[in-house]
């Protein structure tokens, strides 16, 4: 039985289709055209429709491996055993991903996913890290917009810094088209699948915090350097910022524990913040806190899933965003790294791109898989690892730079001059 290099699981979903389109475009790329791949989904009809859609890329779809499978039954092993690495685009990860991880460990197949669900990630770590290490299988969650930009930015800062990187602060800004704030027929930013995962994340946040205390008790009492202690709202570059609600801080926290235990490295103290225009955050944040507490009630969770448009002010829907809106949505990650000596230079990494939820997520997930495929000698041999750990020694940044995600490095003197 021949194996292919990559299989996309959940290929017919909203994000999965974006990954498949990028794979189809490999045919015209000298570096990647020899990579073999396949797709998997639950519905034969949807899989066939997807194959018809990618014929425009001049791909011979008869040569694409297609497998109809439900991740919840034993047939998922028929998928994982046919691939060297799988890209999991199913969701929500809290409900589905463990089946795939278990199959990958069993069949010796590497794995990446686009999850941002912390409780799921920690559960997978606890259950499969040692087994994956022993099997020589690399399991890397959170390879989408959460949390590759931050993880790769931290890798660059750490490599580039002269001396020991002590603190890193990340300022995340989404440049959202104004029509999304003022209403209109086409203001949807995110597909329903992302909304469904968001509700699970809020529901399980308390469980994650408790599980983290149990799993990494030594990390809970970590002292925070004074220079990165900030109030909930603080001003930076003439804007008001608050803690970034993505999983990036926790993902990095788990990465730092690995580096300390395996490499003997001193941990980098990391914080992430975001902002919104027009001071809308002073309205949105209280509503999010209210939703967080109400998500403890099953009836409220069901209402949020049933009426995503109402509870998200029209920003979420089953149709997802238009192509125009996806391309108009930009993002900037600005990471500021400092050493323990205040007289040394600061190092700044700026990461920019467009369409974070889909185009960028598809790009980061695919090239995470490609990096494992092509640079296996530079990645750890196995285990459940955060992206920062898995890709620290690799050239993933160069791949992303060549595929639509921009990185800029700036040295800044203590007096503010560059």
TrEMBL record:
Which residue ranges does UniProt annotate as crossing the membrane? Answer: 272-294
- The answer to keyword Transmembrane applying to this record is yes
For this record, an example GO cellular component is: lipid droplet
Q: Does the keyword Transmembrane helix apply?
A: yes
Q: Which GO terms describe its biological process?
A: glycolipid biosynthetic process
Domain Saccharopine dehydrogenase NADP binding: residue ranges: 6-140
In terms of Gene3D superfamilies, this protein maps to:
NAD(P)-binding Rossmann-like Domain (3.40.50.720)
Recorded superkingdom: Eukaryota
Which of UniProt's keywords are assigned here? Membrane, Transmembrane, Transmembrane helix
Under InterPro entries, the record lists: NAD(P)-bd_dom_sf, Saccharopine_DH-like_oxidrdct, Sacchrp_dh_NADP-bd
Record's family? Answer: Belongs to the saccharopine dehydrogenase family.
Q: What is this protein called?
A: Saccharopine dehydrogenase-like oxidoreductase isoform X1
Q: Which gene encodes it?
A: LOC106122622
